[in-house]
Amino acid sequence: MSKEVKSESVSLCPLDTAAAPVPELLCIFGTGDLGRSLGQRLLQSGYRVVYGSRRPHSCGPLPQGTQVMSHAAAAQSASLVFICIHREHYDFLETLAPQLKGKVLVDVSNNLKKNLYPEANAEYLQRLVPGAHVVKAFNTLSAWALQNGPSDANRQVYLCGNSADAKQAVTETATKLGFTALDRGSLSAARELEDFPLQLFPEWRLPLRLALGLNITFYVYVVVRDVVYGYVDQGKDISFRMMVSLPNKVFPIVSLIMLSLCYLPGVIAAFLQLYRGTKYKRFPDWLDRWMLCRKQLGLLALGFASLHVLYTLIIPIRYYVRFRIAANTVSEAKLNKTSEFDTTMAWRTDSYYAMGILGYGVYLLLGITSLPSVSNALSWREFSFIQSKLGYLTLFLCTFHTYLYGWNKFLNPSYYKWYTLPAYMLSLVLPSVVMVLRLLLLLPCVDRTLTRIRQGWERTDPEDDSKKSLLT
Amino acid sequence: MSKEVKSESVSLCPLDTAAAPVPELLCIFGTGDLGRSLGQRLLQSGYRVVYGSRRPHSCGPLPQGTQVMSHAAAAQSASLVFICIHREHYDFLETLAPQLKGKVLVDVSNNLKKNLYPEANAEYLQRLVPGAHVVKAFNTLSAWALQNGPSDANRQVYLCGNSADAKQAVTETATKLGFTALDRGSLSAARELEDFPLQLFPEWRLPLRLALGLNITFYVYVVVRDVVYGYVDQGKDISFRMMVSLPNKVFPIVSLIMLSLCYLPGVIAAFLQLYRGTKYKRFPDWLDRWMLCRKQLGLLALGFASLHVLYTLIIPIRYYVRFRIAANTVSEAKLNKTSEFDTTMAWRTDSYYAMGILGYGVYLLLGITSLPSVSNALSWREFSFIQSKLGYLTLFLCTFHTYLYGWNKFLNPSYYKWYTLPAYMLSLVLPSVVMVLRLLLLLPCVDRTLTRIRQGWERTDPEDDSKKSLLT
Amino acid sequence: MSKEVKSESVSLCPLDTAAAPVPELLCIFGTGDLGRSLGQRLLQSGYRVVYGSRRPHSCGPLPQGTQVMSHAAAAQSASLVFICIHREHYDFLETLAPQLKGKVLVDVSNNLKKNLYPEANAEYLQRLVPGAHVVKAFNTLSAWALQNGPSDANRQVYLCGNSADAKQAVTETATKLGFTALDRGSLSAARELEDFPLQLFPEWRLPLRLALGLNITFYVYVVVRDVVYGYVDQGKDISFRMMVSLPNKVFPIVSLIMLSLCYLPGVIAAFLQLYRGTKYKRFPDWLDRWMLCRKQLGLLALGFASLHVLYTLIIPIRYYVRFRIAANTVSEAKLNKTSEFDTTMAWRTDSYYAMGILGYGVYLLLGITSLPSVSNALSWREFSFIQSKLGYLTLFLCTFHTYLYGWNKFLNPSYYKWYTLPAYMLSLVLPSVVMVLRLLLLLPCVDRTLTRIRQGWERTDPEDDSKKSLLT
Question: Which residues form the Pyrroline-5-carboxylate reductase catalytic N-terminal domain (chains A, B, C) (predicted)?
Fold first, then answer.
């Protein structure tokens, strides 16, 4: 029966001793901040705690109810030892090897940078104390979570180690502290676990930089074509358009380009496989890296599409728009001229909006299915159906939306200010290319060959064949 | 120490051999595409791999660093054997029974169709080699994931088998490959695991078909009543309304009907229990199936409601709407007539919009709580509170929104074109019925009886009672 | 081989008996509703079931295929016993202690209220039968889920107990029934598990009450300032504004205040740590509780911000707005006056909208990352980056949005109706305070001290120091 429960429930009769196990004793090496936080939490969860310290008599305040001893004495009193020491001071543990033999050592350390040392801290520890069972654990939690228990991004304790029993012991402690333990395999995974808390969206960097670059480029482009041109050519100050109108041109362009960049690497990979006649050769590194950040590209593109939606929907409440509409209506009323209703125009604009809405709807669906809990619940056939079939549908709808927006503007010379292309035209290049290439891959003869290659078939040239027989 | 880590970190000093276990040797039967992919991945994760082949000397290129032997020799060298062979060729394994005795056989096979064979592949394998421990695993992953490691819908390895030790061994391998293993129980779950990768949204089929049917029906209905009628009766071409205006009539109607179809089966079930006087009789099959797809019905309805929101919000930027507003204003200005401000109208339309927004807001909340990770974090009391209480609130708000939309239109004969009802009226039938039935169930006397029945009480007729005593 | 599979697949040849284990026999104490439901489900999953009953010959209808015996006889026939009895009747189990020795007892009971008894039901059971291995499990599932298998909020079986083997046995049964078992540690966690199904959003209560209070207060405030003032002062009936215009004033105000209430406690905590010179003193209770409901505050604020967005986007389709715009245009046309285009106004309003949209966009991102599955996939460094850096960005953008909305209104006396401040000004107080305090904390000298304190450093007064040495 743990301390915690005792304090809550008033036991009126003495409990049967068999049913109330004596609280387990755990050992912590290190009386620094981490050791103190962890000790506090262990005490609260019903453990007894003993600290191992270099200077047991002058190590600063420790949680009430804990003991402090020399490292050797502390190690011998418990079967599980938390190592809350910086890696730089690990070396003294070598001298404790006899006392630590057979103990479970929990390495909770992190480094300040990646690749600071040739081997992971936990592997170094295992090398210093070969007779102990080192388990890497708890290092992915924040000190706050170690002190206060699980919260949002601190629910899961990843652990790894070579001894299944040692991992089981650590798992039970983690569970008792309120965390969910996730086994990550043998101690060779320690480096990965040590890198985890250091990372800050590594797989988002490239897509974010790309998005930033595209946004800046196109923003400058449209500012020059709209605001600067308007000022130079007609002397009008329309700089206020920089807040809403121009971002609402840039965001959909960036979104469409990034969406097509999601699907371009897959198409390139298919052509590469066709050209090589095998799927067993590795793709070039740049293609591999590109394919691995497709999800991030797609989600960023969805973000920009959402901004485009919001920027579009506030159009009618903008002062500028209301002013222009009112001015038009007044001048119509004055001239007593009634403009003719243009059915083609109504068809075109309504189709344009409808494509945009449907495209955005399917896109949102793609976004929702890429939430971890949703994609985990799907079979990969379902997942690839959504990401491939519905993905291409999204690309088609959004591209068609842009073509309808353009309509016959490309015939009108006034759109080519300073001999530059309107920005929307530039955004159409990439998606059009992707869709044409994709259609080529769907041709029966191409599709058949590709399917065979993906099922393991290899095109063999006679000379190539002889080489292979030498290799295997 | 695994190969992978060695290649990354440059070990400057020789490692203690005790700390560096010799890589485990695994065996793969079958040198086809799947076998090659799996072997590659196992090698990369630090295993040694040996292939078993019918023709060990002519089996095509295999990953560098692997060996290939006869089946018998390969089986004896490892304690865990992956069976990467099509089920049709399993029968030869019967002759290997002596060599496979006590080994863990991992069945990774899938069939091309459901119910192709009377028993699951893994159960067939167990029957052929009764002395081995068959574990069904890895079959739910794509070949791509087997070769390249976990990705979105390929993180979890489901496994089942009769031997706990065998499952533990496979779990460790899966973990080392980077996957999360999920135990699905004894080998009798193998069929379920084999069907899983074949499924393509089975529980979404019925709701999707229903949504499609309703959409087409109502779309045709409103096209006839609006566009065709307008053309026939007044000779006007308003066909452009087919892109935005008419979908924006159809989507909310389909959404409201599907939302009420979510709550209708629960009400029917309650009345059935009241009528039967017991909860221990099974519901008819159609009702069971209906109740099982309520979540899908609700999510599709939410999708159509979202489309309705977007279609509504773009109304003021449509060319047609702007044209009409301008034309009205111009004619008002010309006639110098100022229309009176109608406070009732302002109240009615604002209430109508407010109900719609609030209804959509609660509806979104329902959708969010049905995300797997959110619903897992709720207790079932919380979940049923949201899905039932907030669900009926959504239904009420959306129905009220539609009634306010209709207002007194039902009094105006011009709305009954060609003696047909306006579409919105048709959409009100089902939700109104559901809410009336639900209110009946809330009557104290009905509610009391229903609660007792759901707590296990049974209404017993004298004759019925005598029958039961014979049965038990 | 389980019953279920047998009925599905037609086995043509007799199965090897070694491969087909005899179905396991489980025992259920109690023939009430819960016992019946559970028994049915166990039967369907391939177990044999025996009931223990006080009156084995008159205990009402039980699932076909089960046996019923006296408690003692039933207990001896199985190694795992489900206790489907109310806690009030547990006492008779004491007399069965000899028969239950070494058995696994699964306590599935729940209480009607929290804290009804001094100890958890499962702990009471363990005390009554000290020789048995009590496991608390299945109590978090609804009776419906026990009868029909896993569904949305009923996928996970939480269990706890002092014996690892007993928990393993229960885990296997749960898995076979289709659930995912989650180990919650020793039996001292039983009370937590027993409280779980009773809770109804406990951590949402305070934020919900706060939101309700704020909404009502500000709604009354703006109704008085707008509608009542308009009626009293100018005799106009603008009560229709209560449906859309006024909620659209209240929601953003409440949202902004609640968002700043998310960040205020963190700032207060930092100043408290600075003042105390240590991080090892507990925060006052009110601050702890406040910090624990920050997530809920933020999500509610996001909800109100979303309502504000929707209410704003429908502005141009409102009857009142269209009427006013048309009236303005008509009067302009009549007077033949053309108002000048105001570039400052265009800049200001466009900036105002842009800030709002960007703020809402970042806010949505915060909301998405607080979904359990997303936050689980983040390292805590990533999570705290998003929640802190992007959180303050959201607060800044939304506050700036409000300042731009206000602009120079504060100079205009007509806005101070009845000597009251416009509501938007009131909403600016708290976020402005939070941001100023936060900026103070970012001053290099303050930041340095705080960082040191958070790394475990303590400011020590000489007298304080002597006290400490006495304590430890």
Answer: 27-111
Tokens of A368: 């929702």
For tokens 């993905």, name the residue: A391
Q: Please tell me which chains touch A, using 3 or more CB pairs under 8 Å as the contact test.
A: B, C
* Number of domains, chain A: 2
Task: Name the residue among B239, B44, B220, B199 with its Cα closest to residue B111.
Answer: B199
> Among A175, A198, A221, where does a domain finish?
A198
Q: Is residue B4 part of a domain?
A: no
Pairing mode, if any, of strands A156-161 and C104-107? unpaired
Token pair 């223990």 is found at C52
* Domain range for A224: 202-459
| Same-domain check for residues C183 and C326 | no
What ipTM is given for this predicted complex?
0.85
Same domain, A61 and A142: yes
Spell out which residues of chain A touch residue B320, defining contact as CB-CB under 8 Å. Answer: 341, 346, 349-350
Q: Which residue of A has its CA nearest to B12?
A: A118
Q: What is the distance between the alpha carbons of residues A88 and B365, in angstroms, rounded to a whole number? A: 51
- Min CA distance, B322 vs chain A (Å)? 9
**Does any domain span residue B227?**
yes
The answer to whether the CB atoms of B9 and A345 lie below 8 A apart is: no
Using a CB-CB distance cutoff of 8 angstroms, which residues of chain A are in contact with residue C182?
180
CB atoms C371 and B370 under 8 Å: no
Residues 6+ apart with CB under 8 A from C272: C283, C287
d(CA C454, CA C465): 19
Name A291's Cβ contacts closer than 8 Å, sequence gap at least 6.
Answer: A265, A266, A269, A283
Task: Convert the pLDDT of each residue in A65-92 to its tens digit.
Answer: 888 999 989 988 899 999 998 888 898 8
C-chain residues within 8 Å CB-CB of A250? Answer: none
Contact state of B180 with A182 under an 8 Å Cβ cutoff: yes
- Average pLDDT, 10 consecutive residues per value, chain C (472 residues): 36 39 84 85 88 82 86 90 91 90 92 85 92 92 77 82 88 86 84 86 92 96 92 88 94 96 94 88 88 92 96 94 90 78 91 95 94 86 88 96 89 83 92 96 92 80 48 40
Selected for mutation to probe chain A from C382, C457, C467 (highest A CB count within 10 Å) is: C382
What's the token pair of residue C378?
A: 């983040």
Distance CA C173, CA C39 (A): 12
| Each residue's pLDDT tens digit, A87-106 | 888 988 999 999 899 999 99
